Amino acid sequence: MGPERRHIASPCTDTLDTHTEWYDNVWQGWHGSGSYGQGWRMSERGSGAKGLGDYRLGRKQFLAGSALASAGLLLAGCRRDAAQQAGGGGGGSGGNFPDTPEWNFVFVNHVTTNPFFIPTRYGIEDAEALLGTTSQWTGSENSVVKDMVDAMNTAISGNADGIAVSIVDPVAFNKPIEKALDNDIPVIAYNADGEGPGTNPALAYVGQDLFQSGVEMGERIVNLVDEGLVALFIATPGQLNIQPRIDGAKQAIEDSGADIEIQQVTTGAELNEERSRIEAWYNGHKDVAGMFAVDAGSTQGVAQVMEQFGLHDKGVKAGGYDLLPEILKLMKAGHIDFTIDQQPYLQGFFPVMQLYLYKISGGVTGPAETNTGLIFITPDTVDRYLQTESRFEGDSEQQKIVKAPS
User: Fold this and answer.
1) d(CA 339, CA 336)
2) Which of 161, 175, 262, 338 sits 20 to 30 Å CA-CA off 44?
3) How far apart are CA 230 and CA 260, in angstroms?
4) Angle formed by the axes of helices 296-308 and 271-284, to 10°?
C-alpha cells in the first residue's frame, strides 16, 4: 500500500496571535462524494479584530492551524542556522538537518507564464535557498491538461525527487500521481486539488479552500447588492482552480434568499480577451447591479470596465480575486469594493518544505493539508499592499525585511 493523504496534527503553543488569519481559516474538512466541503467565516486583514468573536475552533481545526505555526518556527530556525553556516554547498545545509542530496522538486503548473504565480515561484526559490534543494517549473501555458500530464510523466521518468501539481482536472492526473507514488516520488497538489481531498491520490493539498472562498464571496455580494442582476465572470468554466469558487458564490447567493439574478459569463484565458468580453457583456446589460469575478484576469477586466464607464459612481458594485497591480490601483481609486488574497507565495514555499520533510523523514512526516487562507482586501486596507513591494506579493525580487506601513 502506498502513502496516504494525511491531515494536519501538530503541536501548538499556548497562545494564538489574534491579529493574523491562520487560526480562523484553516481547513475544516470535506464531506460527501463530489462535495467541495464547508469551512467557517474567514477574517479580514486590517479589520482590527481582537479575537475570534463568535467563531470557535474545535480540536481538529485548532490542530490544523498549528501546522502553519510549526512551519513558521521551522523557517525561523532555518534562517538563524543558515546564517551561521554561511557558504555551504550543494544539498541541504540549513538548520540542524544533516547534509542531504540536492533534491529536485518539479512543479507542474497549468498557466506557467501567468503573473499570478510570480510570488509562488519566489516562494519556491526562498524555500530551496533554505534547504539546498532545486526545482523545475513546467506544465502548460494555456491550461492544456495533456501538456501537464506529459510534464508529469517526464518528471517521473527523469526520477524527480518530488512533484507538486495543480490538479485542474478531476481524473486526468490520477494515474500519473499513482505512477509517481509507486516509484517512491511524493506528490503534493497545490493551488488546485481536483474535486477535493479523497478524490485524487496526492498526499496533501496546499492552497485555498476554493469552494469556501466562493461562499464567503457570495455572502459579501449579498451584503453589497440588495437585488438585481449580478454577473459572475470566470475565465475557464470547469477548471478546478476556479470553478469551485463560482459554485460556492452561487450557493451562498441562492441560500440567502436575496432577489438577485445570477448570470455566469465566460471570459477566456487571455487578459485582453477577458476585458473585451466583460465590456461587451456590460454594453448588453446596462441594468446590472454587480459585476464580480473568480480569477485574476477577469477581476482586472471588471475593474477596468468599472473605471471606463464610471460604474461605481452609478451604484454598481464589483469585486473579485487576487492582487495584480492594476487591480490594487483601481481599488484604491474606488472602482471595486474588494479583492481576495489567497497568498500565492505560500503555495510555492510550503510544498517545497513538505516534500523536503517527507524525503528527510523517509515518509514519516511532511505532507499535510494546508489552507493558505482567504483575506478580503478593501479600499480601506489596500494601502499596505500599494505602499510595499516584496517577493511575498510578487512585485519585487529583492530580498528584504518588509516594514508594514504605519
Assistant:
1) 8
2) 262
3) 7
4) 50
Report d(CA 50, CA 43) in Å as an integer: 11
Residue that the C-alpha cell 453589497 belongs to: 224
Among 4, 33, 17, 43, which Cα is nearest to 371's? Answer: 43
* Contact assessment for residue 200 and residue 180, using Cβ atoms and an 8 Å cutoff: no
370 has which bridge partners? Answer: 206
376 CB neighbour count, 10 Å cutoff: 22
90-100 pLDDT per residue, tens: 565 567 888 99
Q: Give the C-alpha separation, 156 to 116, whole Å.
A: 26
Residue bearing cell 482590527: 48
Cα 26 from Cα 324, distance rounded (Å) = 24
232's grid cell: 459572475
Burial class for 8, CB neighbours closer than 10 Å (0-12, 13-18, 19+): buried
Tell me what the pLDDT averaged over the chain comes to: 82
Contact 209, 27 (CB under 8 A): yes
Computed on alpha carbons and rounded to an integer, the radius of gyration of the chain in Å comes to: 21
Contact between 203 and 321 (Cβ < 8 Å): no
Count CB atoms within 10 A of the CB of residue 129. Answer: 15
d(CA 16, CA 38): 23
- Local structure of residue 85 (DSSP, 8 states): T
Whole-angstrom distance, CA of residue 21 vs CA of residue 2: 34
Cα–Cα dist 205/250, whole Å:
24
Cell triple for 39 = 469551512
Nearest to 286 by CA among 259, 323, 311: 311
Q: What are the DSSP calls for 145-166, one per residue? A: HHHHHHHHHHHHHTT-SEEEEE
Q: What residue ranges define each of the domains in the chain, with the CATH number in brackets?
A: 24-38+53-84+101-208+343-374 (3.40.50.2300), 210-341 (3.40.50.2300)
CA distance 155 to 136: 9
**pLDDT bracket for residue 212 (50, 70, 90):** very high
Distance CA 249, CA 212 (A): 9
Three-state DSSP class for 293? strand
DSSP for 323-369, written as a single string = --HHHHHHHHTTS-SEEEE--HHHHHHHHHHHHHHHHHTTTSS----
**pTM for the whole thing?**
0.77
Please write the tens of the pLDDT for every residue from 246-266.
999 999 999 999 999 999 999
